[in-house]
């Protein structure tokens, strides 16, 4: 990465942090407004536990390497992270099998919605549109 790309990336990171309420003095009382605008990558169970500690509403997307449908869901999850309530996270079931086992993941992609740590919805029948996923999250945010 060249110096210009690093500077641009740093500016984008600073801008995202400001939009996400990280120290700019304009934090919203709604804790979910402090969620990242891109999906969070969970690398282990400790990351998952930390996510649950910080967010009331969470969408987990279980994926595997080489899954074409999972790859096609990446831009969808990005749109969901920017527009829906709650935190959006991806978990590679091959790298964090304990978490995949805990949720009984048998196929990918599997989307699991958690509220206060409890599963409240699951979408595991292939590609899902951003509209569908946002609707599910909004329904459970209001409940």
TrEMBL record:
SUPFAM superfamilies, per database record: Thioredoxin-like (SSF52833)
The organism of origin for this protein: Natrialba magadii (strain ATCC 43099 / DSM 3394 / CCM 3739 / CIP 104546 / IAM 13178 / JCM 8861 / NBRC 102185 / NCIMB 2190 / MS3)
Keywords recorded for this protein, A-Z: Plasmid
Protein name (Swiss-Prot/TrEMBL): Thioredoxin
Biased composition (Polar residues): 1-11
CDD domains linked: TRX_family
Domain called Thioredoxin: residue spans: 31-142
Biased segments, Basic and acidic residues type: 31-42
Chain residue ranges for the region called Disordered: 1-42
GO cellular-component term (any): cytoplasm
Domain of life: Archaea
A single GO molecular function term of this UniProt record: protein-disulfide reductase activity
S-adenosyl-L-methionine is among the record's keywords: no
Pfam families: Thioredoxin (PF00085)
